[in-house]
Amino acid sequence: MNSTQPFDHDKPKPSRRQIVKTGVAAGIAAWLSAGKFPAILHADDKAGDKPPILGEGDHKFEWLGDWAKRPADKPWGNTHAVQETADGRIFVHHTGPESMHVYDPDGKFIEAWGKEYHGNAHGMDLRKENGEEVLYLAPTGMHKVFKTDLKGNVLLTLDFPKDAKNKKGDPCYADAKPYVPTFTAFAPNGDFYVTDGYGAGYIHHYNIKGEYLSTFGGKGNADDETACPHGIFCDTRDPAKPMIVVADREHHRLQYFTLDGKLDHLVVNANGENENGRLRRPCHFSQRGTEMVIPDLRGRVTILDKDNNVIVQLGDNPDAGQRANNGVKQADTTPGHFCCPHGATWDSHGNIFVAEWLPYGRFTKLQRLA
Question: What is the predicted pLDDT for the residue at 30?
Fold first, then answer.
């Protein structure tokens, strides 16, 4: 907790024992007799409560659920995505009235914008182009992708790909309605890729100017077909062979494609196991060095090594009924346990920020300890 912040009654409150230790015990009786002692002590208060510690070995994290100091008049909706800029600011994309919140590196609120994405906000990805950082937004209900600067000014609007054809040579879309983009990935050469995750299941390839190049994927159960290609990322952990990795969420797997859209390999669970293997319902990706973090909608966050073996799984919710459940009440959430991780990113210090698909918004910093 930042000691410069004003007292917040939603934060942990001092116990009687702690008050005594501060040397103000002599004043307690007078305050109580005068009826002026603040009503902050309760029977269920626990002295010495500390944030949960997640992980093991070199991957231990402290759960900071109150990191973002969100103003009371700036409500969240479903918190969907998070990115860190080069100067350490944290951008949180959500479905509330002002769909983009910006925080400084200490969690202090800076500004909000994005009223036009209210109710539709979803995917958000960031890269640098011509020396400037830009955001690619995929608001699902708008059937478009927008490139903006960090103030929300639109630099490019990408409509549905009218020229896209599937592997049979048939048009992918008759109109914009079936096109429901979810996230964007960026190749080293400047090209980018958009997943039609909630629509027809295609992945569309564009050059840096936003000119359509090709399409692959599409709904189906073959190895190169998808069932909700929700997230997408350019995996550069092998710098000699950058590849496009797709979070094929409802197939409970990752698909690896070459940059020209040819299937290379799959990452699946052993024996088709969906609950206790690497992947339940993978949503998206963030890379740091040779490690990849994956927010998994079914109640946990997974870190994979360069060979996509599990290093650690964080915040695994023991209550299966809360996993991927958008209806979990805020009062029923538990520090240390995720319900619906939807977006996650490493920051420059090796911490992880997690945005959960919950209607009141749930945003957590996992502060690295080791």
Answer: 36
